[in-house]
Each structure stands twice: as structure tokens, then as C-alpha cells.
Design brief:
Blueprint: H1 10-14, E1 17-24, E2 28-29, E3 33-42, E4 48-56, E5 61-70, E6 75-83, E7 91-99, E8 102-111, E9 117-124, E10 128-129, E11 133-142, E12 148-156, E13 161-170, E14 174-183, E15 191-198, E16 203-211, E17 219-224, E18 228-229, E19 233-241, E20 248-256, E21 261-270, E22 275-283, E23 291-298, E24 303-311, E25 321-326, E26 329-336, E27 341-352, E28 355-368, E29 377-386, E30 390-394, E31 397-403, E32 409-416, H2 418-421, E33 428-429, H3 433-450, H4 452-460, E34 465-473, E35 477-478, E36 482-492, E37 497-505, E38 510-519, E39 524-532, E40 540-547, E41 552-560, H5 695-700
Parallel strand pairs: 2-8, 10-16, 18-24, 29-31, 35-41
Antiparallel strand pairs: 1-3, 3-6, 4-5, 4-7, 7-8, 9-11, 11-14, 12-13, 12-15, 15-16, 17-19, 19-22, 20-21, 20-23, 23-24, 25-26, 26-29, 27-28, 27-32, 30-31, 32-33, 34-36, 36-39, 37-38, 37-40, 40-41
Length: 713
């Protein structure tokens, strides 16, 4: 690990020599060798021939030295070490590397029985209602060179009481997570109290909130734009929901800092059962050093909290850089804060009916800072095509493994950064995507030509299955009215099929209706499924999927918000197929389904004429996703088609309202405002770990319909 350096003497500042401690192997077991690596730079005009000395202890003692010869303007690396003494108790002591008048310092730790571990509270499920189960998830990191086993305890309350514990084993230089919890007691009034995760020597603490009763307007922080540079506007987006049976009007306030100060607020009125999002924020102060501090959003009877970061003027922000070293790998380097999501999209080819069939995914593989990795994160996130979806830590950062969706091949087509995640827009397209996909398609066609005879034999012995094709909906419908989806079911194979067919809706899929059907071999049947839509103020569009055990079909439907008039036309099913280019389709969405915009430069439209679909391939209705060739050139600009709200339920929230500009807070020496002009956050640490964002919220923002991955059965 990179040790912290300290200020050096005036003499060092005048010398042409500079020394920097690069790393140590601390902590080490008592009696083991402590190793220190340092870099020495000759900033002068003459060669130097001197010695680097290792000094340790509160009573400084020289324990090692190495000769150093360096040419002008060059650097050299020196390795120093010594065998630590046998001690009875764990000890921490200072370590210096001295070269002439230049010096750098860090600290080392020697342990007797078990190596120390770092403990961080990652998230909790608070606030919870009295009597519900409260969970606390913590990260346990072992930075030593040997495995350790610790009893991890959850201690709660102002009068501390242990409520849960678990034995955890952590390998050398590894980390793990543990979730502990307890059943909260029945209370008469809302209570806020500390929860601590303890390992015997290390402790991490944060405050949690338990409501006596279900709050009228629960508050959830959806996202922030942190980290931001000092002096920039920090924005917090929250989601509110009225759980009462009548309209409510409440003031929503943003409170920041370890010395809490309200910096913004908005008066919000909500009808019964409705949700909406609100954006609050403030202009951060100009500070020299990077600061982390809590932000809190409060309604009259609820609150949510998160930790944010402001980058100091002395700490240059890391510019986000996206590269595509290959067809199957993308690298994203930068600094990201809690709640930030970075996602990958793909294009792929499946083999069906003897011909390659194109499909894609939009932001189905992502990483959320605060859930998958501790916030803030500075480093490189690697997305790479592999075998299964996973997120893992590497020496250089984080690796996100993206499943190989296509039988013939899968390509990373683009990366979405946090600023575009909410609108499901690809921020950076892969410039190699078109040629990579062409190569996959060509290889698939060559293979199909040699396998025609085998395919014919396989068709004769095809197993029984139930294919699904949506033929129409009654969308658009008014919010609160009944939405119907009609599908045609067809059996393949030589056996009778009995299955349950389900209607699944929303970006956070939810089954709302189902029906059991039995079909004889080679027959078809029409089934109509539906449900009563939720009340919502604003018109929303979302996917509706009909699924059997073997197949599925999806259609984008529209629910018109209260106060708006629905389109009189309904969805009567797919239009007849034509040989026209997809780019020539009209923008008029007469059947309530999304149509792709005629932009010849976008990477979401195939550049070539669509292939004729085989009889046994998936349905080629407009909403089933692209079945044409992928584009020659990806689009690095915004995805103009992805306009869906990230909400998961049909009662989509209204558009975010901009916050009122708060009075300019004190900006002389801290990132958060201070009414007294003092430094509220100077030297502050993250005392209240954030709750983080629910992974479901990340999934809510995926644009499905035409851009959702086709599932080929």
C-alpha cells in the first residue's frame, strides 16, 4: 500500500534530492522482516553518490542503509529492510527513509497474534419501521501477508448491546463482506441511534433511523453528481412517495456537513399513492484538500443520508477516459462517487434457423460505486466478455465480467457513464464494434452453409415447445385503466404442451397475470392477459412481456398520465413486413410502440438491409429487437431513442424540478457551508457511512423494448 508522506524540513526543500516512500509490507508479525521501498530523485545538475538510510522507532534508530548513485535528472529505487523485534503487544511505530537532507515518513505495524483488519460499513437497509429487520453490511479487509479469522460483531444503541455476530476468515491481502442484523423493537417515537461493526481491534460506526410508524412521505436518495471539483454545484436527486390516502404538502430539505447546515429546500405536494423526484443542491466551497462529508435529505417524518466527496484544488480531478483495446474489452479510468453507475452494452449474434440473428443488450451489465466497491473509487474499471456476470477486484481496479450473450460471438458496443445512466444513453461507442460484428456474422454464415443437412435432421426430432408472439395490445390506455396484451401461442415438435403463460411488465419485471394453456402438436391458440394499471400523473412507456417456459415476446406499451388525453388508436399488432431500409420508417408511433429514429449515423440502427427471417426463428415484430446487420460505425453521441424514465413501475414519476439556488455559503476554507465562517469539515473523516443505492435502482434505468437483449430459445 502507498504510505502517507509527511511534510519535510526546510533543509530538504532546498536540496536537489527528493525521496518518496513507495510501499511497505506492513503489517508484519512480530519478529518478521519489515520491507520498505523508496524512490530517490536527483533534481540537481551534478551526479550524486550517497546513501539511503532506514530509521525506525519513537527513539529513532538506524536499522539499514544502501548506497545510491544517481545521474542528474534521474531517479533510483532503493529497497531497505530490518528484522523486527519480538514484542509482547501489538505496536505501531514511525519509519523514515533519509537521503542526505531529504526525508520521507510513514508508519508500520507489528502484531503478535492476529494481523489487524480494516472495517468499513458499506450500507444498511435503514430507515426501517419499528419491528422490522435492520441489516448492516460491512467490508472486512486484511492487508497483511497471512490469513486471519475474526469474530465480527454488530453492536447497537447508545447503551451498547451486541445483537449479532459471525466468524469471518479473510485471506492474505484479501477482503470480504459480512451482513449482520437484528429485529428492531416496538417503539412509540422515531429513534436514531448508532450501530457499530467490531472485530475486537477495529470498529466502524454509523447512525440508523427506525420509524415508530410508516412515514407518510418516505425519502430515498437516487443519485448524486459527486465527486465534484471544489466550487462546483453538488446536486442530489431524491425520490418521494405519498403513502397516505390524501394529498400531502411537505418541505424537503437538504442538510450537509458534520456540523449540519441546511443549504436547499423545496415545498412538494403529492397526491395519494403518487411518486416524484426532486433535485436539491448547493455550490460547494473552494477548498485546497479533498473532503468527504455527509448529506441528508429530510421530509417532515423521514430522512435519507449519504456521504459525498468534493475534490480539493490541490487534488486534480481524474479525467474519465474510456478505451476499447479489443472487440471484447473496454477500460474506464476515472474517479467515481457513491451511487455512480458505469454500464456496458453489447451486440451479438445467435444462430437460429440456419442463419445468424443479431441481438443486443443495453446497460444490462454494470457496476455501482458503494454497492460493488467502496466509495469513492479512483482507478480503472475493466469490462470484459467472459462466461458469467460478476464483479471482482483486481490489482489495478475492478473487473466486470460480461456474459457471452451470443452463440456465435459477443462484442462490447458501448459504455455508459454516470451522467448518462439515468437516461439509458451510451456515452462512448466502441469504434471497432461494426467490423467485429461483421466478422462474427460472416463466420456464422459460413458455418451455417456446412451444417444445412444436420439442421434438417435436427428439425425432424425437435422437442416440443411453446412459441410466443404478441399480436396486439389496447395501449395506449389511461392511467388506472385495464391494459390488455394479446399473444398467439404455437406448439412445435410432436407432443402435447401444457404450460403457464405469464404477463410480465416494467423495467423491474413484475408478473401481473398468467394463464395455463394446453395445446396439441402443431396447433395455435390466442390468449389475452392484462392488469389494472397504476395511477400516475405523467405518461410513461415501459415493456410488457408475454412468457412461456420456452419463449417470450416483448412489446413497449404506453400509459397516459392523468390530465392527458390518450391516443385514440390502439395497437393492432405488427405491420406487414417490407423490404424498405429501417432508416426510412416514419417517426409516427401510431400503434403505441416505440419506433427507431431515422438517424443513419447512430449505432443503434443496422446499416444494411434486414435479412429475411427463417420460419423457425424468433418473431420479427418491431419490438422484438433488431434483427438486421449491426452498424458500420458506432455513435459516440447521446442515444436519441432512450428517453424512458428509470422508474420501475408504471406510475412513473414526474420530471425532476430544478432546485432553488441557495444562498452562497461560506467558501473560504471548506467544501460545506459554515454559518460561523469556520471549517466544518476540515480534517473530517467518513463517520457516517452511506447507505448506498439499491442494485434494483440501477436496473430500473435500463432501456428495454427494442434495445433489450432478445432471449432465443
Amino acid at each position: 500500500m502507498r504510505p502517507e508522506t509527511v511534510a519535510t524540513t526546510a533543509a530538504f526543500q532546498e536540496t536537489p534530492i527528493a525521496v518518496t516512500i513507495l510501499e511497505t509490507n506492513t503489517p508484519v508479525e512480530t519478529g518478521a522482516v519489515l520491507e520498505v521501498t523508496a524512490e530517490v530523485e536527483n533534481g540537481g545538475t551534478d551526479p550524486i553518490d550517497t546513501a539511503a538510510t532506514l530509521v525506525v522507532g519513537d527513539d529513532p534508530t538506524v536499522v539499514d542503509n544502501q548506497s545510491v548513485e544517481i545521474e542528474p535528472g534521474a531517479t533510483a529505487t532503493v529497497d531497505l529492510s530490518f528484522e523486527t523485534a519480538t514484542v509482547a503487544n501489538d505496536q505501531e511505530f514511525p519509519v523514515w527513509v533519509v537521503v542526505d537532507d531529504a526525508v520521507d515518513r510513514t508508519s508500520a505495524f507489528v502484531y503478535v497474534d492476529e494481523p489487524p483488519v480494516d472495517v468499513t460499513v458499506l450500507e444498511t437497509n435503514d430507515p426501517v419501521v419499528s419491528g422490522e429487520f435492520l441489516e448492516v453490511t460491512a467490508r472486512i479487509e486484511n492487508e497483511s501477508g497471512s490469513e486471519t479469522t475474526r469474530d465480527v460483531s454488530l453492536v447497537v444503541g447508545h447503551d451498547p448491546q451486541e445483537v449479532d455476530s459471525e466468524a469471518v476468515t479473510v485471506g492474505a491481502d484479501e477482503a470480504t463482506t459480512v451482513t449482520l442484523g437484528f429485529q428492531t423493537a416496538a417503539i412509540d417515537t422515531d429513534q436514531e441511534f448508532p450501530v457499530r461493526v467490531e472485530t475486537g481491534t477495529e470498529t466502524a460506526e454509523q447512525s440508523v433511523l427506525v420509524y415508530a410508524d410508516e412515514p407518510t412521505v418516505p425519502v430515498d436518495i437516487l443519485r448524486t453528481n459527486d465527486p465534484v471539483a471544489a466550487g462546483e454545484f453538488l446536486e442530489v436527486t431524491v425520490q418521494l412517495e405519498n403513502t397516505a390516502e390524501s394529498a400531502v404538502t411537505e418541505e424537503i430539505a437538504l442538510i450537509v456537513g458534520h456540523d449540519p447546515q441546511q443549504v436547499d429546500s423545496e415545498l412538494v405536494t403529492l397526491d395519494p399513492g403518487l411518486r416524484r423526484s426532486v433535485s436539491l443542491g448547493f455550490e460547494t466551497a473552494v477548498v485546497e484538500s479533498t473532503q468527504e462529508f455527509p448529506i441528508r435529505v429530510e421530509s417532515d417524518d423521514a430522512a435519507a443520508e449519504r456521504t459525498v466527496q468534493v475534490l480539493g484544488t490541490d487534488d486534480d480531478p481524474v479525467e474519465t477516459d474510456v478505451t476499447f483495446p479489443s472487440c471484447t474489452r473496454a477500460e474506464v479510468s476515472g474517479t467515481f462517487g457513491a451511487g455512480d453507475n458505469v454500464a456496458a452494452s453489447t451486440g451479438f449474434y445467435d444462430e437460429t434457423g440456419g442463419e445468424p440473428l443479431y441481438g443486443n443488450t443495453r446497460m444490462e451489465d454494470w457496476i455501482e460505486i458503494g454497492t460493488h466497491v467502496d466509495p469513492p473509487f479512483s482507478g480503472t474499471i475493466v469490462f470484459e466478455i467472459g462466461e458469467e456476470r460478476s464483479v471482482s477486484e483486481t490489482d489495478g481496479g475492478i473487473r466486470v465480467e460480461v456474459p457471452a450473450y451470443g452463440d456465435l460471438g459477443t462484442v462490447l458496443s458501448g459504455i455508459t457513464l454516470p451522467e448518462d445512466y439515468a437516461t439509458a444513453t451510451i456515452t462512448h461507442g466502441n469504434p471497432q464494434a461494426g467490423s467485429c460484428l461483421d466478422e462474427i456474422a460472416d463466420d456464422g454464415e459460413d458455418e451455417d452453409e456446412t451444417d444445412d443437412d444436420e439442421t434438417d435432421d435436427d428439425d425432424e426430432s425437435e422437442e416440443a415447445a411453446l412459441d410466443v408472439s404478441i399480436t396486439g395490445t389496447n395501449a395506449p390506455v389511461q392511467a388506472g385503466e385495464f391494459l390488455e396484451v394479446t399473444a398467439q401461442l404455437t406448439t412445435t415438435g410432436g407432443e402435447t404442451v401444457t404450460q403457464t403463460v405469464s404477463l410480465v411488465v416494467g423495467h423491474d419485471p413484475q408478473t401481473v397475470d398468467s394463464s395455463s394453456v394446453t395445446l396439441e402438436p402443431g396447433t395455435s391458440q390466442t390468449v389475452t392477459l392484462g392488469y389494472e394499471t397504476y395511477g400516475t400523473e405523467r405518461t410513461t412507456e415501459f415493456p410488457a412481456r408475454v412468457e412461456s417456459e420456452d419463449d417470450s415476446d416483448v412489446r413497449s406499451v404506453e400509459v397516459v398520465g392523468t390530465g392527458e388525453e390518450p391516443n385514440e388508436e390502439v395497437d393492432d399488432g405488427p405491420e406487414a413486413e417490407t423490404d424498405e431500409e429501417p432508416e426510412e420508417e416514419s417517426d409516427d408511433d401510431s400503434d403505441g410502440e416505440p419506433t427507431e429514429e431515422p438517424d443513419t449515423e447512430t449505432d443503434d440502427e443496422p446499416a444494411e438491409e434486414p435479412r429475411e427471417e427463417p420460419d423457425d426463428g424468433p418473431d420479427t415484430e418491431p419490438d422484438d429487437g433488431p434483427t438486421e446487420e449491426p452498424p458500420e460505425e458506432p455513435d459516440d453521441g447521446p442515444d436519441e431513442e432512450s428517453t424512458e424514465e428509470p422508474d420501475t413501475e408504471p406510475d412513473d414519476e414526474p420530471a425532476e424540478e430544478p432546485p432553488e439556488e441557495p444562498d452562497d455559503p461560506e467558501t473560504n476554507d471548506e467544501a460545506t457551508p459554515d454559518a460561523d465562517g469556520g471549517s466544518a469539515d476540515e480534517g473530517a473523516t467518513n463517520d457516517d457511512a452511506e447507505t448506498g443505492a439499491d442494485p434494483d435502482d440501477a436496473a430500473e434505468t435500463e432501456a428495454e423494448d427494442a434495445n433489450t437483449r432478445l432471449e432465443f430459445r
